[in-house]
Amino acid sequence: MSAKRKHEVEDENDTSSRYHPNADQAASFGIVLRDFYPPEMSNARCESYTNGTLERPMETLERAYIETEQQREGISANAAVVHWFKTDLRIHDNRALQAAYNLARETKIPLITLYILSPEDLIAHLISPARVDLILRTLTQLQRDLSELDIPLYIETQTDRSAIPTRIVDLCHEWGANNLFANIEYEVDELRREALFVRLCAGNGIALETKHDTCVVPPGSLASQTGKQYAVYTHWFRAWVTFLDRNPDVLSVGEEIGSNSGDARRVFSSLFDCPLPEAPEAKRLDQDTAVRMRALYPAGEHEGQRRLEAFLEEKGKGYDEERNFLDGQSTSVLSPYFASGLLSTRTAVVQARKANGNRIAGGEVGYISWISEVAWRDFYRHVLVHWPFICMNKCFKPAYTNLDWSYNEDQFTAWATGRTGYPVVDAAMRQMNHDGWMHNRARMIVSSFLSKDLLIDWRRGERYFMEHLIDGDFASNHGGWGFGSSTGVDPQPYFRIFNPLRQSERFDPDGNYIRKWVEELRDIEGNAVHAPYERGAGGVARRNGYPEPIVKHDEARDRALKRFKEVTSGGK
């Protein structure tokens, strides 16, 4: 490592130029959760990550492995092997679980699986009540499936998130486990924790082994000819496809694990049928919503696999033509299963490739288009690992943090509750508030509207999505908001200002999506439903209590362009 290179821990007190003009106002709206995170970092510090003078958290983890190698090599298996479930709540195609099972089988000792519920993590990471509910329902099924293989799933709640590593070490000692496996999570908090955890385990006679599992292609594997990381998806995707062609083992799906080794039922009998925790009070669904979510999103990996197979068989070929239309259901709705690890993206790509005649390039355009959409999940994680400051309330283009954002509470509330006077925007927000999910095209429309038409700080929308979506995933959510607000990779602020009316007419041509979710407009016939106050249906809309548009799009567009120009030209 270069002598110029700073380790993260050496630069924690850098507060120079930390705030942008609206930082205090942004913080007052909860954009920076001060209970868990420090104030907003400086743009200069972001640049230190970009130019490589500040060590990235992934590199910190890699260094921890290098520096503890001799300690870990001297550790032998003992009475058990442990797999720590995190966002990988499945048995099928789970890299770390497979490795743990293989070691247990080779050494003829039992495998124990572990899940720690951390209410503080749920709050700090803005996990929605709907996603918490899906996780807890899935744990019930996972525990049952593992029990059929004589593998216990031990679950406990840890109120102090910082105490989780020490608690796991204590459990390993209690069980006589010298080997611990887990899959890597790529967010900054998790990578920093894992780096410290590798050292803690090694110092306590435990070998922690972490696996790349969430991404099809591990972060850091793709680079341009000049050695730089890709920040434009089209270039990155071509490299991703080429990498898979040259490294077919990356797409290997692990064998199904079998029955547990050793006599786990006798030795670890107390770990079976471990009681499942309840959701923390702040993350509980009301009864009606819980019933609805359970009907919309049945729990577990079996449902994820069923949905994948049904989608590829019934809708895969036509996906490219139909995927942008808001009415009906032309997409897979697998994102809730990907987000919590009930289904691996690797499995999805492998099965889509098989449906496409074992091709990732060429063949049926529908399958190729869907694989490309799944690959966005990899892309945003690759971006996260290389530019980790996006986990720290900064956008990919840090200068855009300095844009003179608005914090108009009335307008934000109108957007959040689906009362903007723009029917397609309101339909999308009402769908999310009711179903915990939103079509990707709708996500682009509403994020552009909040950040461009209303010029409200995009981070408020990012947070609202995380707190309401059942598929809330930090990397994908942040990436989507970076796209919609033109503050992320490949921003194009001068072209990417969506006209809500044109989007509505193009992707909901009959207005059925609007009528489904905006009940005040159900009686309006024809294309007036897209803009009732402009097309002679204002009387009906007004009588039914539907609001007039809160801004004029053309004026808002001009204002947004001016604000972005001020930042890019150095005027702010």
From TrEMBL:
Stretches assigned to the Photolyase/cryptochrome alpha/beta domain: 79-216
Entry superkingdom: Eukaryota
Keyword Repeat: no
Keyword terms, alphabetized: Chromophore, FAD, Flavoprotein
UniProt cross-references to InterPro entries, sorted A to Z: Crypto/Photolyase_FAD-like_sf, Crypto/Photolyase_N_sf, Cryptochr/Photolyase_FAD-bd, Cryptochrome/DNA_photolyase_1, DNA_photolyase_1_CS_C, DNA_photolyase_N, Rossmann-like_a/b/a_fold
Segments for region (Disordered): 1-22
Pfam family, one: DNA_photolyase
Cofactor: FAD
Family per similarity comment: Belongs to the DNA photolyase class-1 family.
UniProt name for this protein: DNA photolyase, FAD-binding/Cryptochrome
Organism: Aspergillus pseudoustus
